[in-house]
Specification:
Elements: E1 12-18, E2 27-37, E3 46-51, E4 54-59, E5 68-78, E6 86-91, E7 94-99, E8 103-105
Parallel strand pairs: 1-8, 4-6
Antiparallel strand pairs: 1-2, 2-5, 3-4, 6-7
Length: 106
């Protein structure tokens, strides 16, 4: 079981943008946030699993933090509106955030 980890910043957003012109996908899921890091690292979110309708994303392991904030963005085309009902963001084995309010933009 994962323990909740306190972050300096709790600014995470998740949304789906509908794409009426794509014949095979409903739209694109976006996950956006900011993390504390150092100037030399280019952080990114990586998909590590899909458990039922929960998407789990992994942050890079924390190294030296010099107070620099960087934006991270994950996107994925989705086939239907209910493909994901929540997004879990982890750092190592620790849960940083669980987002279960996914806004749909049409």
């Amino acid at each position: 079981m994962r323990n909740a980890l306190q972050q300096d910043l709790d600014l995470w957003e998740v949304w789906i943008e509908y794409d009426q012109f794509h014949p095979e996908h409903f739209g694109t899921l976006y996950v956006h946030g900011e993390i504390a890091t150092n100037k030399k690292i280019c952080p990114r979110l990586t998909k590590i699993s899909k458990d039922g309708s929960q998407l789990t994303l992994q942050l890079p392991t924390k190294s030296e933090v010099d107070g620099c904030l960087k934006e991270v963005l994950y996107s994925e085309p989705i086939k239907n509106l209910n493909q994901y009902t929540s997004v879990c963001i982890c750092e190592g084995d620790e849960v940083v955030e669980v987002l279960d309010d996914i806004e749909v933009m049409i």
